[in-house]
Design a protein that fits this description.
The protein is of the alpha/beta class and about 240 residues long. It contains eight helices and eight strands, in the order E-E-E-H-E-H-E-E-H-E-H-E-H-H-H-H. Helix 3 (about 95-115) packs antiparallel against helix 6. The chain binds zinc ion.
């Protein structure tokens, strides 16, 4: 099964912005978590964006069509002038029975795990729902304009819970079993990638170990990598 994950907004389009917290960053984080969890659950994953970039809404839909995705899930955060507005809602396209079915699965799992106020499943002709050729939903996870919910939206644990619920909803929709994934697995992978980037960088700069050997590019922060990093630090500080 192929899922297209769509992180709302990006680049110059910040989405909702409250006290320096941007919707575009929250949506991307949820999508990256969801991709990790979904892959571990046997899904093939596509993301309309993987970094902070501007995208036209129609291109998001066309990307999913081009990759023959089976479902499309767009992630957003809500806002309203009244900061008391709260809760979760999930949208699908009018007349799309499958889209509606998917929205109920995702909305249901989100409410179950986050216990946020249930605003229900709704219908709208959003362009990402209109131009996609597969069941498509748009989830407004919570209100960034609500101080209590904004606090949740900056918590990695909460976003992991949200991502898990979204994937659980997708599994329910396809009638497949959901396997719980712990967040430390993802963070471990993120850290390894960072170490790997450093190892590649140090080798590319010919900054080698005591014996003049390049580092093994394995993403493991061992003694050799640490000592070369210290050498690099000294070069930076011109000691
Ligand atoms: Zn949005």
């Amino acid at each position: 099964m192929r899922i297209c994950l769509d992180a709302g907004h990006g680049g110059k389009d910040l989405g909702v912005s409250v006290n320096g917290v941007y919707e575009k960053d929250i949506t991307l984080k949820i999508c990256k978590y969801a991709r990790f969890i979904a892959k571990k659950n046997g899904f093939e994953c596509f993301m309309t964006r993987e970094k902070d970039e501007s995208l036209v809404n129609i291109d998001r839909a066309l990307y999913a069509n081009r990759n023959n995705c089976d479902i499309f899930v767009s992630i957003h955060c809500n806002s309203f002038v009244n900061e008391l507005a709260r809760g979760t809602e999930t949208w699908s396209y009018p007349c799309s029975d499958e889209g509606e079915k998917l929205s109920h699965h995702i909305q249901g799992e989100l409410i179950k795990s986050t216990s946020l106020f249930n605003r229900g499943c709704k219908k709208a002709r959003f362009s990402v729902l209109n131009k996609t050729e597969m069941p498509a939903v748009l989830t407004e996870v919570a209100f960034l304009s609500n101080p209590q919910e904004a606090k949740l939206l900056v918590s990695s644990d909460f976003l992991w819970e949200v991502a898990s619920s979204i994937v659980r909803g997708c599994c329910n929709y396809f009638k497949t079993e959901f396997k719980e994934i712990v967040s430390s697995e993802f963070l471990g992978e993120e850290e390894r990638n960072l170490v790997l980037e450093f190892q590649k960088f140090l080798n590319s700069q010919c900054i080698y170990d005591e014996s003049g050997y390049p580092l093994r590019e394995d993403g493991i922060l061992g003694q050799r990598t640490l000592s070369v990093l210290q050498k690099f630090e000294k070069i930076l500080l011109k000691e």
